[in-house]
Specification:
alpha/beta; Rossmann fold; 4 domains; globular; disordered C terminus; Lambda_DNA-bd_dom_sf; P-loop_NTPase; Cro/C1-type_HTH; Helix-turn-helix domain-containing protein
């Protein structure tokens, strides 16, 4: 699924002027400033051309840019043709696409700069065209997608953003999205009428997938014609936030990517799609200092928790004692953003030392956000759903890990607890990592893992009655774990490599 736009390829003659200039510039490794120096054109003019804002450049400007890019006769002709198309009204489409921006986040990005930089570069360059960000509910998948989309939009990509019905949003939609209806139609087209599952297919969590990639799409399942006309060969990003991979139709996506060579697709989901070419991006909670390490206000989880504390208790000053309490709570809750936000909300009814005591004795009680009951329900249902979707062998392993002595474990411990071979244990650990049930660490100089405290707390105290979308979790298994019917309890499918 790694298909980029080649400035010298067959699509050059029909590419937009800005796409051509940017493609040639990136191909030879020039920044906008370096191209400006070589061509004697201002950086602003080059930026406007690449973004499609300058629709009627002078012939001399194009000649200077072509000289700076060292283009041959064929590539120069393509630039001139793109300018002529713009003069005949082609620029109106690009002005329309320029307004296609991602939603505005309501909170700053904390501790995810490295992940956002990697995702943005992979998608911008075309090295990856299909990326799925997975992680436990509330870990920050949407916030990372917002930052990635914003970076691509700044680079000139129109962003088509679709939030799945029922997904929890933490952003403000654009005031005027000219392609909102087309984005909605595209998302509906990719879902298809019903998931088409081959017998025996399974995701990393043992559930079926709608990715019937062995069956070609029927001829009448064409992408929305209006979307194809609007995007053409322009670079663009489609974000499906809160996607349900089991409902997505891979043949339709394949056709869409073939028809739109500049399109990239970014999914946020609880589980992988498990289709060819999928780049799986595992999102762990924020880093938090260990209790035996000095408390650091700049640790991502501590910064996040301090920010939420300021919203409810601005009188709490992060002195040495309070900072130690904040760092301890951040580590105890594994740096999980939604759990930290819920814990901070309790400071309206208690002080920081009391909050620390509750986290130590009964953390499950703090996972309901006092100011927003939906957040607590969202977290509980998300964790229950993740546990229910695990294969039976992985659920049993989680139960044993929750009752084993100590928080950290390694592969040797998994082999000892299960009696299985090392490859089987490695696959089980990977399944738990993909589900976000455990997080990795190297605090002891070796690769270790630990079950998230959120998972431990909610697994030990399941809610009465079935959670949303997990009706089969009514009974309990090992260590209070939800039980569900597993079509192949012993199989743990290995998804596409991250």
């Amino acid at each position: 699924m790694t298909t980029g736009l080649s400035p010298e390829g067959t699509t050059t003659a029909t590419a937009a002027l800005g796409t051509l200039i940017r493609g040639h510039r990136l191909r030879i490794g020039l920044t906008q400033r370096e191209l400006a120096d070589l061509s004697t054109i201002s950086v602003r003019a080059i930026r406007d051309l690449e973004k499609g804002k300058a629709l009627r450049p002078r012939a001399e400007t194009i000649r200077l840019i072509a000289d700076g890019l060292r283009l041959g006769p064929r590539a120069r002709t393509a630039l001139e043709e793109a300018v002529r198309r713009g003069h005949h009204g082609g620029g109106s489409r690009h002005l329309l696409l320029e307004r296609c921006a991602p939603p505005a986040p309501l909170h700053p990005l904390i501790g995810r700069q490295a992940e956002a930089a990697v995702l943005a570069e992979e998608l911008r360059s075309g090295a990856e065209r299909l990326v799925t960000v997975v992680g436990l509910s509330g870990v920050g998948k949407t916030r990372l997608a917002l930052e990635t989309a914003a970076r691509l939009h700044d680079a000139g990509f129109p962003v088509l953003w679709h939030t799945a019905p029922g997904a929890v949003t933490d952003s403000l939609p654009p005031d005027d999205d000219p392609l909102l209806a087309l984005t909605t139609a595209c998302a509906a087209h990719l879902q298809g009428p019903e998931p088409r599952t081959h017998p025996g297919t399974a995701t990393a969590h043992g559930t079926g997938t709608g990715a019937s990639y062995g069956t070609p799409a029927p001829a009448d399942e064409q992408p929305p014609a209006a979307l194809l006309a609007a995007l053409g060969d322009r670079d663009a990003l489609l974000v499906l936030d809160g996607a349900a991979p089991a409902r997505l139709d891979f043949p339709r996506l394949t056709r869409l990517l073939r028809e739109l060579p500049g399109l990239r697709v970014l999914l946020t989901a609880d589980t992988p799609w498990n289709v060819p070419g999928e780049r799986l991006f595992l999102l762990a909670p924020l880093d938090a200092p260990r209790p035996d390490a000095p408390a650091r206000a700049d640790a991502p989880a501590v910064r996040f928790l301090l920010g939420r504390i300021r919203q409810v208790r601005p009188d709490i000053v992060p002195d040495e004692r309070s900072l130690a309490d904040v760092a301890w709570v951040a580590h105890r809750l594994d740096g999980h953003p939604l759990a930290l936000a819920a814990a901070a909300s309790w400071l309206t009814v208690c002080d920081l030392p009391t909050l620390r005591g509750i986290v130590e004795t009964d953390p499950a009680a703090l996972l309901d956000h006092l100011a927003d009951g939906r957040s607590g329900s969202h977290l509980r249902d998300g964790v229950a759903r993740t546990l229910a979707q695990l294969p039976a062998s992985s659920r049993e392993l989680v139960g044993r890990l929750c009752t084993a002595a100590g928080d950290d474990f390694d592969l040797d411990e998994v082999v000892r607890l299960t009696g299985r071979s090392l490859p089987d244990c490695g696959r089980m650990v990977r399944t738990l990592l993909i589900g976000g049930v455990i997080r990795p660490g190297t605090d002891h100089g070796r690769s270790t893992f630990r079950v998230l405290r959120v998972v431990r707390a909610l697994a030990a105290r399941p809610e009465p009655g079935p959670p949303a979308n997990a009706a089969s979790c009514a009974s309990s298994g090992p260590a209070g774990m939800p039980e569900t019917r597993d079509s192949d309890a012993s199989a743990v499918a290995a998804p596409a490599a991250a």
